[in-house]
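Q: Hi! First time doing this. I have a protein sequence and I read that you can turn it into a structure. Is that right? Here it is:
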Amino acid sequence: MKYSINLMIVLLFFSISACSETVDSEYSTLNVATKENAIRTGLIPEWLPTTSRQITVAYDISTNEKILAFQYKIAEGWNPLEICEQIDPLEPPKPQISRPWWPTDVPADNTNPPRHTFYTCENGESFLAAHPKIGQVFYWNTKI
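A: Yes, that's right. Below is the predicted 3D structure, encoded as structure tokens:
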């Protein structure tokens, strides 16, 4: 009996450790995210525009992957080229994390013309899709 209980505990441990755990976070503004240490801990990149709002993040603890969406005021004049390099819309890989708030056309596909401008950042380890006319950005990284 004791053997079967120990075996069940071991099997439970391995089944839990094999699953990835994704944490979801939302911040109304960049100021709120800063106060909650989201930038200091690396959950949110430090280069977000100062007027960033409606920041939504899904972060996979086991793989260090994340997807992030935010909006910013267009009048701020934020330019992704200050931190990233523009790339072909079909070049970025699809993020491994999926959420209902993530658009189906990010990354782009061959079915429709892309609505966003696509970028690679951080030496090709992350990607960004920006819609500068409405101040909307989607960011994701690959395994680190």
